[in-house]
Amino acid sequence: MEQVSSNRSHGGTQGVFSHASRETGTTMTFSVYVPDYAPGAKLPVLWYLSGLTCTHANVTEKGEYRAACAEHGVIFVAPDTSPRGEDVPDDEGYDFGKGAGFYVDATEASWAENFRMRSYIERELPELIAAQFPADMARQGITGHSMGGHGALTIALRNPGRFRSVSAFSPIVSPLNCPWGEKALGGYLGPDRTAWREYDACALIDDGARLPDLLVDQGTADNFLDEQLKTHLLAEACDRAGIAATIRMQEGYDHSYYFISSFMADHVAWHADRL
């Protein structure tokens, strides 16, 4: 692991790091904010998964999480959204290929070698965080935005007991039922839609996966709401399953980091209560 940068902020340290990933076969970059802590202490960890076109830098620069994380004593980890590099395959569209890993392990030829973001987030990066930072891995929460909200929900649903808290901003709740999901899952996994179900939060819930509770914020002025995000499908799935879901439709907010940063402190506090 190499340190790319380090900056003091809100009584803690914001770092950016890179390492050679065994899962993606590429150099991966991520950011970690660590509040100041007593010698020997271990702090809870909040994972944040970013959306389409993003890197670790978007939330690091615009997310406004550090003051809340410092107040509550929470480590904040922000990975990249896909493998990078000249030899990594890509697509002309913004919604597939680099910047659009969709947190899946690809099985289709040309994508399968590098696009292993599921294994990277579920296994490899947690091992690195546990080894290199004062992280209490028994106290983890996860959140994310848009494609990253999809990632947070599906990773938590597939790994019962790992995360004490789960939230999302504007998540893609059902890739089986939106153009972004159909393009990404079809491209990475092939045409068999049954293989897509483990990457669809609503399908996972209908198939028996559960969360202890859930917080979701969604802007009513989000131009992706009706065609791509379809928040109502998650509300209906949680209702059928008896999952305690707080789904807040925030009047007038869009899909941007102006929206995310407005409610980030709420989410950090919500996670901290459970961590």
Account of the protein in words:
The protein is an alpha/beta fold. It has one domain (2-274): Rossmann fold (3-Layer(aba) Sandwich). Helix content is 33%, strand content 25%. The protein has helices spanning 57-62, 66-72, 117-132, 147-158, 179-189, 201-206, 225-229, 231-241, 257-274, and strands at 2-9, 12-20, 27-35, 43-49, 75-79, 135-144, 163-169, 213-219, 244-250. It has a 9-stranded mixed beta sheet, sandwiched between helices. Strand 2 and strand 3 form a beta hairpin. Helix 2 (66-72) runs parallel beside helix 9 (257-274).
Q: What is the total tally of β strands?
A: 9
Number of helices: 9
Q: Between the first and last Cα atoms, what is the distance in angstroms?
A: 27 Å
Mean pLDDT, to the nearest integer, reads 98
Helical content stands at 25-40%
- The secondary structure category is alpha/beta
Order of helices and strands: EEEEHHEHEHEHHEHHEH
What keyword list fits this structure?
275 residues, alpha/beta, Rossmann fold, 9 strands
Summarize the structure.
The chain has a single domain (2-274), classed as Alpha/Beta hydrolase fold, catalytic domain (Rossmann fold, 3-Layer(aba) Sandwich), CATH 3.40.50. The chain is built from nine helices and nine strands. The chain has helices at residues 57-62, 66-72, 117-132, 147-158, 179-189, 201-206, 225-229, 231-241, 257-274; strands spanning 2-9, 12-20, 27-35, 43-49, 75-79, 135-144, 163-169, 213-219, 244-250.
